[in-house]
Amino acid sequence: xxxLVNSSRITAIGTHFRQKSHAFVPTxxxxxTKSLYRNRNIGIEQHHRSLKPIAASIQPVEASPxxxxxxxxxSKEVLELWRNADAVCFDVDSTVCLDEGIDELAEFCGAGKxxxxxxxxxxxxxxxxxxxxxxxxxxxxxxxxxxxxxxxxRPPRISPGIAKLVNKLKANGxxxxxxxxxxxxxxKPVASILGIPPENVFANQLLFGSNGEFVGFDENEPxxxxxxxxxAVQRIRKAHNYKELVMIGDGATDLEARQPGGADLFICYAGxxxxxxVAAKADWLVFNFEELISSLE
Length: 297
Prior knowledge:
By secondary structure, the chain is α/β, with parallel strands linked by helices. It is 37% helix and 16% strand. The strands form 4 sheets. The chain has a 6-stranded parallel β-sheet, sandwiched between helices. A two-stranded antiparallel ribbon has the order 1-11. Strands 2-3 form a two-stranded antiparallel sheet.
């Protein structure tokens, strides 16, 4: 997800991916959308049928010479912690998926440019996450029908190698979570593709009125505010008494999760967005999920 970082250099690596939006397609988009939601006065719930992904032809991005930090080669301690982790929490936007969900939804609703510009300004770090989220949503006020239409016409575009990595982790007995500042309505289909149960998804919730009009987002979700990912990870760890927990993501909000009671290890995935201020502080910087997969074998 986007990192709200102070004056950091941000290299957008995946801007050319939009042309390949057919990478993953549900078995039946129309049936999927109709069964996906049950409208409630304050929100919507999802019931997602199985999705059958189609192999993507996108090649992972390699590190540029100017981006070769010393943490691209993990220490023995980092490798040991990674291999023995009880749980791994993944960011979604620009990590598990190739896109930033709110910018994509805004573009679909005709407000992509203004929302993207606001997102760029928000990255200065001077605006609390909850204010940035509310401000961007207010620029296009997505209705229930628009969200449903978006999900039908623009299915999730999964990052290369992530499905294999998740399967490898689960085979090793590691529990996988999705922790995102994005929206549950857009993330639950992703979780279904990856075989991650809904209770392992921590994200924001768009709220709609009785006529499907946008009324806001659930402010009780920990990921709806600054420091929220750290709170979510701490809750996950405490609830299950995990001994070793890893956070993987691309942004400053993901890095925040590495603190006492939270993640023991932060792995920065820069295969879509390379945020150098975040990458420099990571325990391990990777540009390809295959690096993480091979380290588990």
